[in-house]
Amino acid sequence: VARRLSGATINTLHTMQTLHPIGVFDSGVGGLSVLREIRRALPAEDLLYVADSGHAPYGERDDTFIAARVQAMAGFFRHAGVKAIVVACNTASAVAVHALRAQFNVPVVAIEPAIKPAAQRTRSGVIGVLATRSAVASSAVARLVQAHGHGVRVLLQACPGWAEQVERAELSGAQTDALVERCVRPLLAQGADTLVLGCTHYPFLRDAIARMAGPNVELIDPAPAVARELVRRVAPRAGPAGRRGTERFWTTGSPQQVGKAIGALWGQPTLVLELPSA
Ligand code: DGL
Questions:
Q1: Which residue owns the Cα nearest ligand 1 atom 8?
Q2: What is the pLDDT of residues 48-84, one digit of tens each?
């Protein structure tokens, strides 16, 4: 009897865990470019998304500030009982992913600029990495360049103003094009034929970047690779097949404003709640 009971308890615990949500966060709405890949790869899972828009852009902040914000997100996810965390922000993962991994015993999957695949694919031998100012200055990105940039010229390009355009869902127009041109043109002039979208906001500017870069330049977004890694890591606690997972959205910014941007980027009207005391 004792054995049967403990088996049942274990089964119940396991079933409960399979239904726990996956927590995904970014400094703002950019992480939706990762969330959409996760939704595609894991249709049965409940997803909690936090846009820390009240503190965006992280790219202009120092490491101490970013690390404190990651702690605030972690506190919310701990409370929500998530079964995995996705850091859908290159800047946050460059600065604070180690601390997060040390605190949680659930899988923590973090995006990072796709320097390795870019270095493998370039034909000109020059790649450009488009990222935030903080990410470009981080030792994590320096390590990626050192590990994967052999025999390739890696141009790190900070892109001030880009994340803000995406936060306002201004994905096209003269102002967006001018901001894109200012950062992309110097990379093309130096011979880059491969550009890494090293910030999760930037895939939403893909059309503007591609127009500027032309057809011979490849753009690389690591979001699908992050989703594949998450699939692998949550496999033991995957939600039941055939189930339709939900998405819930939270923000530290204005729920109305962020709700508008999320609705536009996610492609449907979306309820966004204010994150309690974060
Ligand atoms: N989306 C973030 C990233 O991937 C950063 C944008 C920002 O807040 O500056 O780096």
A1: 57
A2: 999 999 999 999 999 999 999 999 999 999 999 999 9
Q: Which amino acid is at 136?
A: V
pTM of the model as a whole: 0.93
pLDDT tens-digit readout, 100-124: 999 998 999 999 999 999 999 999 9
Instruction: End-to-end CA distance of the chain: give it in Å, rounded.
Output: 46
Task: Pick the catalytic residue from 89, 129, 192, 261.
Answer: 89
User: Which one of the listed residues 86, 188, 199, 258 is annotated catalytic?
Assistant: 199
The four Cα atoms 200, 205, 207, 208 give a dihedral, to 10 degrees, of: -140
Which residue is listed with tokens 């992309």?
A: 184
Host H or E run for residue 158? strand 153-158
| Distance between Cα 91 and ligand 1 center (Å) | 6
